[in-house]
Automatic annotation (TrEMBL):
Pfam families (UniProt xref): HTH_1
Classification of source organism: Bacteria, Pseudomonadati, Thermodesulfobacteriota, Desulfuromonadia, Geobacterales
N-terminal signal peptide: none
Superkingdom of source: Bacteria
Start and end residues of each HTH lysR-type domain: 42-100
PANTHER family: DNA-BINDING TRANSCRIPTIONAL DUAL REGULATOR MODE, TRANSCRIPTIONAL REGULATOR MODE
InterPro entries tied to this protein: LysR_HTH_N, Molybdate_resp_trans_reg
Protein name: LysR family transcriptional regulator
Length: 127
């Protein structure tokens, strides 16, 4: 058992501590996930590559799975996220709709605000 003087010598928090808080957020409709970090990454890769197929390869998932994610999000959200041009001799192309770009922007703002709140509470509690 520690005496009162020894208890006071025990630090309550250490600035050099490696303990960190992590959190994830996602959006749901009727209790079903519709948008989160994985699907956010997929849309960002479609934007960067101009291709659902290239985005799927970058994520290490089959094209069909990527397409299914996009299709499910569009149906659940009620608006298009990706504009697709069918392939041909030169191949197809995909781009994000203005609604998809707005969704990504709002999700960024939501994540930043959420992380700010969580980190503030983490520090307030003295971890």
């Amino acid at each position: 058992m520690l005496t009162q003087n020894e208890e006071q010598a025990v630090p309550t928090s250490r600035p050099e501590s490696r303990l960190q808080v992590r959190s994830k957020i996602w959006l749901e409709i009727d209790g079903e996930p519709v948008f989160g970090q994985g699907r956010e990454r997929l849309l960002r890769l479609v934007k960067a590559t101009g291709s659902i197929n290239a985005a799927a390869k970058e994520m290490g998932i089959p094209y069909r799975k990527a397409w299914t994610y996009i299709d499910a999000m569009e149906k659940r959200l009620g608006f298009a996220l990706v504009t697709r041009l069918k392939g041909g001799a030169g191949g197809g192309a995909s781009s994000l709709t203005p609604e998809a770009l707005a969704l990504l922007h709002k999700f960024d703002l939501l994540q930043a605000g959420f992380n700010e709140q969580v980190n503030g509470k983490f520090l307030e509690l003295g971890f």
